[in-house]
Write a structure and sequence with these properties.
With about 600 residues, this protein is α+β, with helices and mostly antiparallel strands. It has five domains: about 5-90, Zinc finger, CHC2-typedomain (DNA Primase, Chain A), CATH 3.90.580; about 105-235, DNA primase, catalytic core, N-terminal domain (DNA primase DNAg catalytic core, N-terminal domain, Alpha-Beta Complex), CATH 3.90.980; about 240-365, Dna Topoisomerase Vi A Subunit, Chain: A, domain 2 (3-Layer(aba) Sandwich), CATH 3.40.1360.10; about 370-420, no CATH class; about 435-590. Helix content is about 55%, strand content about 10%. The radius of gyration is 29 Å and the shape is globular.
Amino acid sequence: MPLVSNEKLNEIRAKADIVEIVREYVPLEVAGKNYKGVCPFHEDHSPSMSVSPDKQIYKCFACGASGNAFQFVQNIENISFIEAVKKIADKIGVPLDIGEIKKTNSSKYEEEYKTMNLAMLYFQNNLNSLDGKKALEYLSSRGLDEKTIKDFNIGLAPLDNKLYKFLTSKKVDIDLLSKLGLVNQNGLNYYDLFRNRIMFPIHDAEGNVVGFTGRIYNNEDEAKYVNSKETIIFKKSNILFNYHRAKNEARLKHHLILVEGNMDAIRMYENGFLNTVALQGTALTNEQVELINKLRCKRVTLMFDNDNAGALATMTNGEILLKANIPIDVVRLSLKKDPDEYILTYGKEAMEDNIAHAESFINFKLNYLKNNKNLNDTRDLVNYLKEVVNSLKDEDDLTKEVTISKLAKDYDISIDTLKEMLPSKETKVINKEINPKKEKAITNKKLTLSIYHILYYMMNDERFIKIYQDELGFFNEKVYRGIAAEIIYYLQKYGKINLADFLTYQETSPLKDEIRDILDLVTDDNPDPIKMHEYINNVKEYNLNMKIKSIKEELKSESDVLRQEELGNQLIKANKDLQKIKRERSVKND
C-alpha cells in the first residue's frame, strides 16, 4: 500500500461525513441520533444498517458489516483500502497523491499473466469459428447459456497448433510458452498442449489466469480432462476454482459452499449460489484452508459427489477444516451424482432447500463411520465406538459432550467409559503469528463476549481504558492482550481515542480482522462504567476458576511439603477472590 501518514488519513476521515458518503450509495432516513438504511452488503429487505454521525461508523445488525467511511467505500466499490481513501479525498477536495497502484504479483509475473490472458482470449475467440459452432452446441447441451460461457471465459482449443503460432506472432518467447505449459516440444518442433478441447480458465485469488482445464467434447477416445502443469504461477495447492468470483459473496453471507468439480461450481454460480468454489482434485491443502480462513465465514458447506468417493472426500476435508476451527456442515444430494446434475434435474429451489437443511458434520461422521459395520456384532460395535470417540478430538467441548451422551444412550454404554477413551486434543503451533480463531476456541461464549465488550468500550472512550488498566490490566489470550495494548498505545500516541480513526490506524495490522469481529458482535451503543465492571468481573471469575483448577491439579502430584503449603495459600486466596466477586454480583442483583 502506498505510504500515507496516519495524520493524513485522519485528516481526510475527519473532513468526510460518513452520512454523506453512505448516502451516495444508499438512501438513509433519520432514526433518533443515527441514520438507517437498507444494507448493500447482503439481501436486506428492511433497513438493517445504522450509520452513526457521532462515531462516524456504519454497522449492519443483520450481516455484521461495519467500519468507517474508508471501509464502506472499499467494500461497496470492491477496491483496495488506499483506493477508497483516494476516492473519498477526491470527493471532499483534499489533495492526495498515491501514485499508480499495482498488484505485487501482477508486477512480478506481469509477462506470465499477460501471456495466459492472451491464451484465454484466443480460446474464447475460437468459439466464433466453424469448429466453435460444434463446441457451442455441446456447451448448450450441457445447459450452459451464452452469459455463463462469457462469465467463465470458456473457450475452445482447436485441433491444430494455432495457439503456438498466434502467441509467437505476438512476440511471446517460446521458452515462456513451454514453462507455462501451453506448448510441448518434440525435437525441434513445438505443438499445442491443448487441442480439440473445451477450455476452462483457472484463476488465482486475485483473478489472474494461471492455468486451464481442457475437456473433450467430440472424441471419447482421449482422456476426459487435460490440466495445466504446475508452473511458477500455477500451484494447485494454492488454488480454489472460482475463488476470485466467490470471495466477496462468501464474505458478505459469512458462508462458503465447497464442491468437487469445476462444472459443479459453474452450475451453482449461474443459479445464484455466488459463494461457491471447487477443489482442484485433491484434499484441501494448508494454503487452501488459509484462503477459506481469510473469508471469515461462519459456515462452510461441503457438497461433494453422491458416491462413495464423495463421502470419503467429505470425511477427509471435513476433518481438515475442523482442525482449522472452521465451522462446517454437509449436504449429501440424493438421487443425482453431483450438484451439476442435481440442479439441472430438480432446479434452484430444491438446491436451496438442501442447503437450508444441511446436516451437521458430526451427524454425517456418525453415519459415515457405520459403513461396512454390523453394529449387532460386538467387535464391529467396539470398533465403531472407538472410531467415533477418537474422531472427536478436534470438536468443541459441547459437541463432545452431546455426542458422548448420545452414544451412551443409543448403545447402553457408560458415559464415563466413553469419556475415558477421549484422546487429548493436539496442540500444534503452525506459526508465530497471532491466530485469533485458534485462541477463541479455548474460551466460552460468556467470556468471549465480555472481552469483546471491554475492548469495544476501550475503543470508544478513554475512561474505559483507565478502568481496564486499574481493575484488570491483562488478558490471558494473546490476541486480546494485543488489541488492548494497541488501544493503550494509540491513546498515548495521539492523546485521545476515536473509534473511526482507530479503525483506520489498524488497517494494516494483523489484528484487523479480530477488531472487525468485535465491531460485528457488539451492539451496545451505550457503554457505561457499571457494565464495564460487570464484564471485567466475568473475566476475573473465569481466570480465577482456571487458576483454582490448575492449583488443584498441581496439588494432586506435588510431594514437596513447602510447595504444598504455598499452593494451599494460593488456593485459599483464589477462592476468597472468587467469593468476593460472587458476593458483589449477588448484592447488585438484590
